[in-house]
């Protein structure tokens, strides 16, 4: 094994000037372990991935069984492979009837790329509406619809024709018109610091899309897969998207994403031009086997039944005068401090104490808590007590 900091810093591309550099030897449940045997409580699930905990035995078993059958055999969309068939069947059984056709990708940003392309191709329109402070991924298309100028300006030109509207503001819905191909929205904004829209607003948005013929893409890459207490966050609001995108926790720890729509919509990718969206590894059989097992765990262990009560426990135990607010949907939480400096100090001090929290891309005054849904009451109590002690100890 090689946990050299020099190798990490010199031979792996860096994305920040100060990476956390925690050396991880293994992971189990809600814990990560370092080579020197220290245990860390993972309160962020590898940023929204390990919703059923690390290395769930049912997922490991499914991966092992698939390893013994085959790995990659053909690019996406040509051969019939059992893992993607089984996963598609399961996934559509859990979705409204109009979301009946899955395109599997490798990641979240690719799922959004595919969704944007299919919306343009299906409607024949070009204009896209997105939201201020949103995050949809780092490739050019997804970055174009990401509402954070700081992350974009160095990479222009990006996609033309994208308009950013205010999240949860009905007045701005007028920007959606008959030239709009699609509206792309995180059902609950993640990296903006957990922003939850009003039900009424989402219903108005849905109606506006219906009236204008714009497709509604809901990005549930962070808020999906049980994170908020329902399998998909849109279920809470009495609406459904035309295209749903998922990734992160979807693959149960392996890379996998999907965009899902009605077959009639998706069909346009197969002609004019043929091969309208292609990928070599999308729907990798091992990833699909892991994803199916993950959905089975969520169902069999009835994980969704306890998400809300566990979220409430965090609110109950995380009390400190420096905590200004907690925004929460199920086990997706943003904890607000007065200043970004306090957040920086808190995240680092918590790590020193063996508790992993993290910041948000577009909301520096908050830190994130989104633990595996499998976290127990006792673990929540211990983690919160640790955080409160850490907060007590940091300078203002
Ligand atoms: C809401 C949302 N959309 C898209 C993405 C991009 O996913 P990926 O990093 O798998 O490309 C993310 C990642 O953080 C996300 O939170």
Descriptive account of the structure:
With 396 residues, the protein is an alpha/beta fold. The chain has helices spanning 5-11, 45-48, 57-67, 82-93, 108-123, 140-144, 149-152, 199-212, 263-266, 285-300, 307-317, 340-352, 377-393, and strands at residues 26-28, 31-33, 39-42, 101-105, 127-131, 162-165, 180-186, 215-219, 243-246, 257-261, 325-329, 332-336, 355-356, 358-359, 366-369. The strands form three sheets. Strands 4-10-9-8-7-5-6 form a seven-stranded mixed beta sheet, sandwiched between helices. A hairpin with a 5-residue loop joins strand 2 and strand 3 (39-42). Helix 3 (57-67) packs antiparallel against helix 10, helix 4 (82-93) packs parallel to helix 10 (285-300) and helix 11 (307-317) runs parallel beside helix 13 (377-393). It is globular. The two termini are 40 Å apart. Bound molecules: pyridoxal-5'-phosphate (PLP). The site of pyridoxal-5'-phosphate (PLP) has 14 residues, from helix 5.
């Amino acid at each position: 094994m090689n946990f050299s900091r020099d190798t990490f810093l010199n031979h792996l591309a860096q994305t920040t000037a100060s990476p956390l550099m925690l050396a991880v030897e293994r992971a189990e449940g809600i814990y990560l372990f370092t080579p020197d045997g220290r245990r860390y409580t993972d309160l962020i699930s590898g940023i929204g991935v390990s919703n059923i905990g690390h290395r769930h035995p049912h997922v490991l078993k499914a991966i092992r069984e698939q390893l013994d059958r085959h790995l990659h055999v053909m690019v996406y969309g040509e051969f019939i492979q059992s893992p993607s068939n089984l996963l598609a069947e399961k996934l559509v059984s859990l979705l409204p009837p109009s979301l009946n056709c899955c395109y599997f990708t490798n990641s979240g940003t690719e799922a959004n790329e595919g969704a944007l392309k299919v919306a343009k191709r299906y409607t024949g329109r070009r204009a896209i509406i997105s939201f201020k402070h949103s995050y949809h991924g780092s490739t050019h298309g997804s970055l174009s619809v990401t509402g954070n100028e700081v992350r974009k300006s160095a990479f222009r030109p990006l996609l033309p024709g994208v308009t950013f509207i205010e999240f949860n503001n009905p007045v701005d819905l007028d920007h959606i018109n008959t030239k709009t191909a699609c509206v792309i929205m995180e059902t609950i904004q993640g990296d903006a610091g957990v922003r939850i829209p009003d039900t009424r607003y989402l219903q108005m948005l849905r109606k506006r899309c219906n009236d204008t013929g714009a497709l509604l893409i809901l990005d549930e890459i962070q808020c999906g897969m049980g994170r908020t207490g329902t399998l998909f966050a849109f279920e809470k609001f009495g609406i459904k998207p035309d295209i749903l995108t998922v990734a992160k926790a979807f693959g149960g720890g392996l890379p996998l994403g999907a965009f899902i729509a009605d077959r009639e919509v998706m069909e346009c990718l197969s002609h004019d031009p043929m091969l309208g969206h292609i990928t070599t590894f999308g729907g990798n059989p091992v990833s699909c086997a892991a994803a199916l097992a993950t959905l089975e765990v969520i169902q069999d262990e009835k994980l969704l039944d306890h998400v809300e009560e566990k979220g409430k426990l965090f609110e109950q135990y995380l009390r400190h005068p420096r905590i200004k607010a907690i925004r929460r949907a199920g086990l997706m939480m943003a904890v607000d401090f007065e200043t970004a400096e306090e957040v920086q100090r808190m995240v680092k001090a918590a790590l020193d104490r063996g508790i992993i929290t993290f910041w948000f891309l577009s909301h520096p005054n908050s830190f994130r808590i989104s633990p595996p849904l499998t976290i127990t009451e006792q673990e929540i109590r211990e983690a919160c007590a640790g955080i409160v002690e850490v907060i007590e100890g940091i300078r203002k």
